[in-house]
Design goal:
The complex is a heterodimer of chains A (about 220) and B (about 130).
Chain A lengths: L2 H4 L7 H7 L9 H7 L6 E5 L3 E6 L5 H10 L9 E4 L2 E7 L2 E6 L11 H9 L5 E4 L6 E5 L3 H6 L15 E7 L2 E9 L2 E6 L4 H12 L9
Antiparallel strand pairs in A: 1-7, 2-5, 2-6, 3-4, 4-5, 7-10, 8-9, 9-10
Helix pairs in contact in A: 4-5
Chain B lengths: L2 E4 L3 E4 L4 E5 L13 H9 L7 E7 L7 E7 L5 E5 L52
The chains are: A alpha+beta (about 220), B mainly beta (about 130).
Chain lengths: ~220, ~130
């Protein structure tokens, strides 16, 4: 590329070049997200291209134990999130899990997570499938994040019930999505790629009222 | 909207689920031996009780698992949730009533462990109207 000769920035690695030409499912909303975010109230951003791997392995089987060794544990019941370091495993069903890891863990960028999971499963019954392109990730943060989500999600999101570190597969804005509470005021929402723009706009619409002063 | 207690995920909105029709309709032992009438009864004839009905549901937006449910078709009260292959909880140990119209073998859906009956009510007719099967 022409800029590499003139620009003082270090030359891009092939992985960075690869990411630069990719378009994330909600990439078209990047400016809208920036404009709609209200610092200190509620902010939204897309975390594009996280590595996600779908796992199916019967609980208690040898394959599940080997996979748990790679990921740092498998969740046992609905809502649980297991994992270690920057790898998290969300519970999707009694024998179905979703591994979420940083972008760099993907094999196209030189990561070895998926290969390690495949080797852990071996020839046993089950599956390890790269689902990185299946869903995208929205991060909704701020003290009003919960009330924005409550407009489209019928789960009880009150902190007394929905603790940080739990994740549920549910409906948000009438579409199926995963909702993961990562901190007291921060949520990650995983819509399917084809729903990403719809849900992004739904959340932006839910955030709009907080831009105005509260009506007493 | 129904609030359905998924056995894996807890109470969730009805919109997260899909309906699977009447429970305890067993696949015929040997479909090749059935007459067209018997086959059509297996395929198309289902209970339509006023009262308790055993039906299948899948939590399609959540854990994607099937389960059985006893629901009152009048009040929409959910009386019981029980696993696929289990007997109807309200008929465990009860003497078999007359067999229903939809099922040929009196079996449960998945395992064949003798749930002897599909009709939870006394209003089900003993057989389908003759003209309907012709």
């Amino acid at each position: 590329m022409a800029e590499t000769a003139a620009s003082p920035t270090p030359a891009k690695t092939p992985a960075e070049k690869d990411l630069a030409v990719r378009t994330s499912p909600a990439g078209s909303l990047r400016d809208a997200f920036a404009a709609g975010s209200l610092a200190g109230t509620v902010e939204i951003a897309e975390l594009p291209f996280l590595t996600m791997v779908g796992i199916r392995a019967a609980a208690g089987s040898d394959a599940a134990r080997r996979i748990a060794d790679v990921t740092g544990g498998l969740p046992a019941r609905s809502g649980d999130v297991a994992g270690s370091g920057d790898i998290s495993v969300l519970w999707l069903g009694p024998s179905e899990f979703l591994v979420v890891a940083p972008t760099e863990a993907h094999e196209s960028l030189g990561g070895d997570l998926i290969q390690a999971l495949r080797e852990a499963l071996g020839g046993d019954a089950g599956q390890v499938v790269d689902l990185s392109a299946n869903r995208t990730t929205f991060e909704l943060t701020g003290p009003q994040a919960r009330s924005v989500l409550e407009k489209g999600c019928s789960l009880d999101l009150h902190p007394r019930v929905f603790k940080a570190g739990t994740a549920y597969s549910t409906e948000i804005g009438n579409i199926p999505a995963l909702l993961w509470k990562t901190g007291e005021d921060s949520f990650r929402v995983f819509p399917r790629a084809s729903f990403a723009e719809f849900l992004g706009r739904w959340l932006l619409d839910g955030m709009r009222e907080y831009a105005s002063p509260e009506v007493p | 909207m129904l609030l359905i207690p998924c056995p894996n995920c807890g109470p969730r909105d009805e919109t997260e689920f899909h309906y699977g029709g009447q429970a305890h309709v067993a696949y015929p032992e040997n479909p090749n031996e059935l007459s067209d009438t018997e086959w059509s009864r297996y395929l198309f004839y289902r209970e339509n009780p006023k009262g308790i009905f055993a039906e299948r549901w899948v939590h399609s937006t959540g854990c994607r698992q099937w389960f059985n449910m006893l629901r009152d078709t009048v009040s929409y009260d959910i009386k019981a949730i029980y696993p696929m292959g289990a007997k109807r909880p309200d008929q465990a140990g009860a003497p078999a009533a007359e067999s229903g119209t939809a099922s040929l073998a009196a079996d449960s859906t998945t395992t064949g462990t003798a749930a002897p009956d599909i009709s939870g009510t006394s209003i089900s007719p003993a057989s389908a109207p003759e003209g309907a099967t012709k």
